[in-house]
Amino acid sequence: MHLDPFELHRPTTVDETVRLAGALAGRFDFLAGGTDLLPNYKMHLNLKPHLVALEDVDELRGFSADRLGAMARLADLERDPAFAATWPSVADAVGEVATPLVRASGTVGGNLLLETRCFFFNQSYFWRASLGFCLKADGDRCHVVPQKEVCYATHSGDLAPALMVVDAEVEVAGPAGRRRLPLADLYDAKGDGVRRLTLAPGELLVAVHLPRAARGRRGRYKKLRVRPAYDFPELGVAVAGRWTGDRVEELRIAVGGAEPRPRRFDTLTDALVGRTLDDARLRELAEAIGKSVRPVHNTFLLPDYRRRMVAVYVRRAVAEAREGTAG
Length: 327
Ligand SMILES: Cc1cc2nc3c(=O)[nH]c(=O)nc-3n(C[C@H](O)[C@H](O)[C@H](O)COP(=O)(O)OP(=O)(O)OC[C@H]3O[C@@H](n4cnc5c(N)ncnc54)[C@H](O)[C@@H]3O)c2cc1C
Ligand code: SF4
Hints:
Layout: E1 7-9, H1 14-24, E2 28-31, H2 37-42, E3 50-53, E4 67-69, H3 74-78, H4 81-86, H5 88-96, H6 100-105, H7 108-112, H8 125-131, H9 159-164, E5 169-174, E6 177-182, E7 204-209, E8 218-224, E9 235-244, E10 247-256, E11 263-264, H10 266-270, H11 279-292, H12 303-323
Parallel strand pairs: 1-3, 2-3
Antiparallel strand pairs: 4-7, 5-6, 5-7, 8-9, 9-10, 10-11
């Protein structure tokens, strides 16, 4: 596997980056840490002739308790105990991404905008050519659910569910200016594994904003994967909430790693506010979330197992978050 030639651009401001993106009109990808994009390029997955590197754009760097720059490195977040104390679900998730080496280059923005994954897609060009390409790259059919023209590739980032449960917002910049939206709305509810984001063409993720009102929620992120030291999530469950004794004051749960987009379950959790979350009610909640998550057979573990594990992981994550220390 090799990298084909591409033209590399190195803008230094957000405005310059957006102008460049407009001029390259869809013939480019943004390059952050490159830990997802470049392996995909080596496998000849949806290559573009231009890469716009974000490394030199100052405004995208760094992080605080209120704001994560899109180019903040995961390893830097991981090394900050004050950040972990304030945002426990997010700190859990950061520590679960890949390996220390990948986290040294991987960024917050790249993690949130990670390409979706499927074992018929994340393969070399020759492997895919011998099987027949699929509609996510070079082809026009799906090998997982052949009768539908829909891609079921899985959102496999760890950070999104953990940031969604603290009501994070994202700031994006594009040809029409800047806007802010809830992180949950970055993922297209009507889309699929190909049309997975609500970003307009050429829009750049600038930062993630963490609301002060969510500080102090107890949080936990739990991840199911095949090899604990290395693998993408087969399932990721994030929880953040406040309790008085066993009574729920606030509760958010999000599930990632199981469908083309990470999802929050506010209708189910809002119904519990003001009520006691005893074991029976927690079991009911976990089963209801498990029933509504629909993985397909495109990762290592079987969908029925992943689905049953949703309920198990929800129960564990809620129990551990409730016992944990408020941030
Ligand atoms: C061996 C291995 C194991 C891995 N395991 C995991 C894992 O367990 N969990 C996990 O979550 N990830 C995993 N990853 C994926 C990846 O390393 C991380 O998600 C990482 O955080 C991606 O960040 P990056 O900066 O390298 O993204 P890049 O590869 O640079 O970019 C990823 C995508 O985001 C786009 N993008 C990046 N920044 C922006 C921006 N600011 N605005 C608009 N678009 C942008 C890029 O164009 C690209 O499409 C793994 C990768 C490897 C190689
Ligand atoms: S789910 Fe189907 S279309 Fe999507 S990547 Fe897998 S095989 Fe391709």
